[in-house]
Amino acid sequence: MKNAIRSGRICVFASAVIFGFTPVLAAISYQNGNNGINMAFLRAAVPLPLLVWLSRHAAFPRKKQWQRGLMAGCLSFACTLMLYSSYEYISPGLATTLHFLYPLYVTAYESAKNLIFPGRRRLLSLSLGVAGAILCCCGADLHGSALGYLLALGSGICYALYIIQLDREANDPLPLYRLMLAISFSGLFLCGLLGLALGKLTFSLTATGWLCAAAVALLTAVLGCVLFQRGVRAMGPENAAIYSLLEPMTSIFFSAALLKDNFSPQKLIGCLLILISLFLVSNYGKKNDKEQR
């Protein structure tokens, strides 16, 4: 059991590093002819041949397993589309901050489902992690339309539902690459329809734009999502949601290193709070029984 939880932590950490790094590649792709909706579409389309090949020996899923996988994909790409779209109405920093409230939603759901109030250590860890994410992501620009705020909040809600759906799926699991295939099929349908309706689908990317877009698609869909799903199966949705708060911290480091973004004291404090949060939650299982007494 301990080895499984340790393995789950490593998987979620690794996925957070991947998800923190790929926005830097996406930003470079946007500078070379890409856009948010088209990036989401490519993220679903590019990995499909590889996922088909990787899942070729897996047992063919039952109907309900496919349905759960497709639902997880709809939630995942709904989150992506809402977050990308919110950038057009409010600042990306504010949008990302609102998105990273999703661990609160997951914790609230788990507490209501199990009729157990989170212990003090868990609440402290969650509070520090969310505060750290806010400091990491939130810029000075707090202006924007109500639609942008709703889209950013909605993206966090969709991602929380996606994590919960992954936990449900783990009770009767699809082989991981079959699950990623179902998720990509959902994204292909959703992003393709929206991209066609809004005229956002384009193939007029430079070579650099295509290279970065392909790297984002393969790293996230084939590697990042598989690692995150392994983490959810090993340590549960609530812990996985908190550990994934490492993502904004890694994104800041990669942005500073590769895009020369400003690394302010505010962001440094936010990173430290996230690290403290992860340290606390890593020992939560050892302290939980004591806290409940």
Mean pLDDT: 82
* Class computed from helices, strands and strand pairing: mainly alpha
Query: Main beta sheet: strand number and arrangement?
Result: none
The number of domains is 1
Q: Approximately what portion of the residues adopt beta-strand conformation?
A: under 5%
What string, H for helix and E for strand, traces the elements in order? HHHHHHHHHHHHHH
**Global Rg:** 19 Å
Overall outline: globular
Beta-strand segment tally: 0
Distance between the termini: 23 Å
Helices, by number, come to 14
The helix content is: over 70%
Low-pLDDT sequence parts: 285-293
Description:
α1 packs antiparallel against α10 (207-235) and α2 crosses α10 (207-235). The two termini are 23 Å apart. Helices cover 79% and strands 0% of the residues. By secondary structure, the chain is mainly α. The model is unreliable at 285-293 (pLDDT under 50). The chain has one domain (2-292). The longest helix is centred in the N-terminal third of the chain and has 29 residues, at 2-30. The chain has helices at residues 2-30, 36-45, 48-54, 63-86, 92-99, 102-114, 120-137, 146-169, 176-198, 207-235, 237-243, 246-258, 265-282, 284-292. It is globular.
Question: Descriptors for this entry?
Answer:
single chain, 293 residues, mainly alpha, 14 helices, 0% strand, disordered C terminus
Short note summarizing the structure:
This protein has 293 residues and is mainly α.
